[in-house]
TrEMBL record:
Domain (Acyclic terpene utilisation N-terminal) ranges: 64-429
Protein name (database record): Acyclic terpene utilization AtuA family protein
Organism field: Paenibacillus piri
Origin superkingdom: Bacteria
Amino acid sequence: MSTNKQLRIISPNGHLGFAPTKEESFKLGAATKPDYYCCDSGSDDIGPAPLGADKSVGMYDWQVHDLELMLLAAREQGVPMIIGSSGDTGSNSRVDMYVQIIKDLAKKHSLANFKLAYFYSEVDKEYVRGKIRDGVQIEGLDGRSSLTLSELDKTDRIVAVAGVHPFIKALDMGADVIIGGRSSDAAIFAAPAIREGYPEHLSYYLGKVLECASFCAEPYAAKESVIGTISHEDVKVTAMHPDQRCTVASVAGHAMYERSNPFFEYFAGGMLDMTNCHYEQYDEKTCRITGPEFVPIDGKIKVKLEGAGKVGEKYIGIAGIRDPYSIKHIDKVIEWSKNQVAEMAAGREYFIDYKIFGKDGVMGEMEPVKDFKSHELCVVVEGVAETKELAEQVTLMATRQIFYARLPEVKGTAGTASFVVDEMLRCTPAYEWTLNHVIPVDDPLELFDVRMIEVGN
């Protein structure tokens, strides 16, 4: 057990590089000399396309900005910096990109030599195929059935979601900076606390409350820094922005907002039970939390796998409608458009979707429009097909046919759509989640190879 009374970790951004970290609150937090600088850089909330296409959704310059803030502060203070799920997805190419950014920043600022650890999270499909053929059950999550070879064949890229173990190993190796592949959001923060001897139940709760940075504070403000403090008895979280506070309501609300059962969070080897959490206002800007429990799960450790597979090429079209009669009968307009696409693309596979946005609300495809009071609508058309040519054709046809819809009681060329985008917008290809499963492993480091290099001027 650590003899230190407390450990302090700064979380500057709930998703590094997704939008730039706000510098004022970060500098206020850095001035308090935290023990660790930790940040999550990824999420599956962004959908399967970035993983499948192996690209980032954050701008490169924003990612450099956030890494630079953290690196300079951590190196000046001489404390560790930890990044998980590098480059949004934690794929190997994103880890390599972040490692190179750290090298470039070290050279730019003439930093003294330091140890940089990194690990990859991508999993070879053949490794997974071998497990299935050996009779290993790779269980599905969120209602999915166990993984089959046919589902695996549809997959272009797989990442394993790391727990605390590769981060702890890197710290044991003497790392000053850690660049991680795909990781559990909370594990990035829990790892240093567990390594330094703080209780697992409080360490995992610390990670849970810090992972989204200022989302646990009020009033709402993103990309602001917060500091989590763990002792052997409690966790405290403090907002750094001058106008934000971590309150009982904001912290409890954040801890419970994103799960079907809001009181439980699962990790490799155990489960965080927040049923008996107690929240109290410690001071004006700080909430104190006690009472979480960590319940070990018997049996093998299971690691989550995320996989994405390409569905087809994708285009977007946009139509604006101001004609009151067309707005009132928008369901018939969409039905006409769909039928015209079906006639044009008969015998070929495609997917078409309509999202209808109006000033009084948002509707999904073909939902009733009774009492819809907007004076204008925006229809976003999404077309997907195996080839770029067919995807563009079905999207263009669907968008233009909104203008040409044949409605009863419309006489002459009154027109329906006031504006149609004829130039289709080509998008990243469409992908789907093919894996949301857990695979049993004998060693929690089995899928994560931790490497170390020395970086400096």
